[in-house]
Amino acid sequence: MIIDIHGHYTTAPKALEDWRNRQVAGLKDPSVAPKASELKIGDDDIRESIEKNQLAKMKERGSDLTVFSPRASFMAHHIGNFETSATWAAICNELCHRVSQLFPDHFIGAAMLPQSPGVDPKTCLPELEKCVKEYGFVAINLNPDPSGGHWTAPPLPDRHWYPIYEKMVELEIPAMIHVSTSCNACFHTTGAHYLNADTTAFMQCLTSDLFKDFPTLKFVIPHGGGAVPYHWGRFRGLAQELKKPLLQEHLLNNIWFDTCVYHQPGIDLLTKVIPVENVLFASEMIGAVRGIDPETGHHFDDTKRYLEASTILSDEDRYKIYEGNARRVYPRMDRALKARGR
Ligand SMILES: [Zn+2]
């Protein structure tokens, strides 16, 4: 089976965005702030938004299951305060839960957290636990920069984040390290901020001994790991300068990279440089890059094509990238699948 570990509900019914706009307007003028209960989205609206979009493309391209989380650029943790994020995260997570209930064979949830700049990450734990225990979610998206491009939070190995890590280890869930919208004009959200953050998260882990404190902690670095695979020699050299162990032993028991790299040479490089055990199939479909590549005539984000066309990968490697690795990294998903005979 083919598991896409990186999908977001980018096609949610328009009512969601309208509600959010009112919530944001309500920060200036509380008289227009909506209640959570004012958002009404019917099951048919959800069905339509999925069947015509993500599910249609999954069927067309040949993937079976997507780990599905709220739209990343809409998390916008920098807006408002903790209460703003808490209400918004609860709404977005519940919608993803409903998608997974309506299409249990094709979608399984991952949670966004109600992060807010300057607020103790401990405040995210009730929402996290609800999503895992009540909704059956199998992962979280952790934003290393809730300020939206200003990087005001401590780096990931700082004890600031430990409450989240302790809960992740306890619940056996990985975190995709995923930023949200950039409100810093220097960084385009999906073209720069996302890739910067992927690279930054990796380097923060490299300079630290985080995984000595949490040997079973699991991070998924999306978008092919940002600049990491391309500059693997630099990272190995820096680790050596810093007297860290070899990267294999220092980081690769705890960090995985996804395949959201939208061209063949990129996928070839990723799978040549990074051990296949550390690569997870993903497309981030329907996401930031929706067009058709004029050089191939296929969608840029149809990442399965690149893996299929690879002359580097064996069938065994492809199995690991499509399914085997994901079952190890997302043990709750593996158990949920086995419970359904898959
Ligand atoms: Zn994403």
From TrEMBL:
Pfam families (UniProt xref): Amidohydro_2
Q: Which residues form the Amidohydrolase-related domain?
A: 3-331
GO BP terms: namely: secondary metabolic process
A GO molecular-function term, please?
carboxy-lyase activity
GO CC annotation terms, alphabetical? cytoplasm
Task: List where this protein forms a coiled coil.
Answer: none
Under Gene3D superfamilies, the record lists:
Metal-dependent hydrolases
Q: Which UniProt keywords apply?
A: Hydrolase, Lyase
> What name goes with this protein?
Amidohydrolase
Task: Identify the species of origin.
Answer: Zeimonas arvi
